[in-house]
Design goal:
The protein has 148 residues and is an alpha/beta fold. The chain has a domain of 67 residues: Nucleotidyltransferase, domain 5, CATH 3.30.420. It contains three helices and seven strands. A five-stranded mixed β-sheet has the order 5-4-3-6-7, with helices on one face. Strands 1-2 form a two-stranded antiparallel ribbon. β1 and β2 form a beta hairpin. α2 packs parallel to α3. The longest helix has 21 residues. It is rod-shaped. The model has no long low-confidence stretch (mean pLDDT 81).
Amino acid sequence: MSIDSTGKSGIQLVSEEESPLNSQINTTPLVDIMLVMLIIFLITVPVVVGSVEVALPTEENRLVLPKPDNINLSIDASGNVYWNQYAIPEAELRQRLRAAAVQQPQPEVHIRGDENTEYLNVGRVVEEAQRAGILRVAFITARPMRGQ
């Protein structure tokens, strides 16, 4: 607004040639939109990602006491199989597992595989136990370190 010499106020129009060129981007509307979107996402994401309530199991290690009727198989890093503490060839392992499968009650097979052995070696022993008809096969592991 401007006041002329007669004391009247009026709107003065400025031509485009006289106004300075403003080449800066006005980021205020962009920031406003982004804040609104952030608030919307913070409110809606927990609703969308809802899950079914289930009781999750807790970690527990039970001490496994070897029973005399359990079959304790160990597999070393090179793939050798041990029945209790004695090395056993694959043919004899098959024969002993078949004999154990017909016992009543059927013994459990506990497999202790070296962490450096190939999975194929452990899988071969599990397969032999399945073919023999053993119903319960367990894997024995080391106790996890605290805090992991």
